[in-house]
Model the fold of this input.
Amino acid sequence: MTPRQSIVGRIAQLEFLAKFRWRALLFGGLVTIFALLAFFPERYLATSSFTPSDRASLGLSGALGELGAINSVFGNQAQVEVALRVGNSVAVRDQVIEETSLRDRKTEGRVALQRYLHDKVEVRTLRGGIITIEMQDRDADHAREIVTAYQRAIEAELATVSERQTRYKRDVLRQLVEEASVDLARAQQAYDVFRLNNRYADPRDTISAFSGRIPELEAAIRARRLQIAAASEVYTPNNMIIRQYQAELDALRGQLAEAQSVATQGQGVGELVQNSRQLYELERDLEVERSLYNGYVRYLRGTAVEDMTADANLRILELPHVDTERQVWVPAIALSIAVLLLWIAIEAYRLRPPPGSVLRRQEYA
Done:
């Protein structure tokens, strides 16, 4: 049974490859042509590199934190991925087409130019979150122009995305500020009504003063008792001085009883407890509404700083330039190596053909 022939075997059995000089002429010529095409005509590599910047690198992290805008629009972990996706977007390529002389060089339509940029320009990431833009072309000035336009377009598109997100955030915060302002005014009005109804200029000080009134009355009562006891040693019970002291003592006892009363009406402990509980609720509501309002206003001010720093979204590491290292056309090198390996395989096959092969053995010329 004849073994199945391989592709190398079929090529080796071709009639015009029977002599070595024809094989050397064919395969050697192809290897030489592809090797020359790898270096000539000379190609140039235009490149630039950058990395997405964060607020801390700009020295604004403290100010942004105070204004409530410390968080990035995209988040720290997504900055490189977002910049890479924007760099390969249709919008960036459209902007590059508009800003460069690409339309003058090529008369194709927009779709063809988009495909040209997609094939010629490579936007990729390196280690450390570095993004590089590369274009290899025979015209060094043209390649550098395209890479420069790409870098500007990526920066502008990232700024547009940031501004759009900040604008949406600002609209939401404005609505929250308006609602919080209404709630704050309502809480302030309820607090003021409580002060007017109870005639409290400063409710906390008034309640604190009222809380210390009972110990003061008890101390005054003890003092009057001592005065009465001392006066009784000198005067008779019906003396005007003793009767005056006794009247003051009765008045103080009445005031103490009124202050110690648990009734909710009057000037006693009951009214104090009721008013203090209501005062606590009103102060709590007022403080909550004021905190919400101040917080929303602080975040709203932070959006202004985000707008001002929207364009500072990239740190340029290398400006667009043409690499000084000589560029090699990798596909031509790969074809040259492939043809050389095929030639070696054919020669090995002809030197030692497998069993059952019908290869015609001819002398090397």
Q: What stands out?
A: The first strand starts at residue 44 and ends at 52.
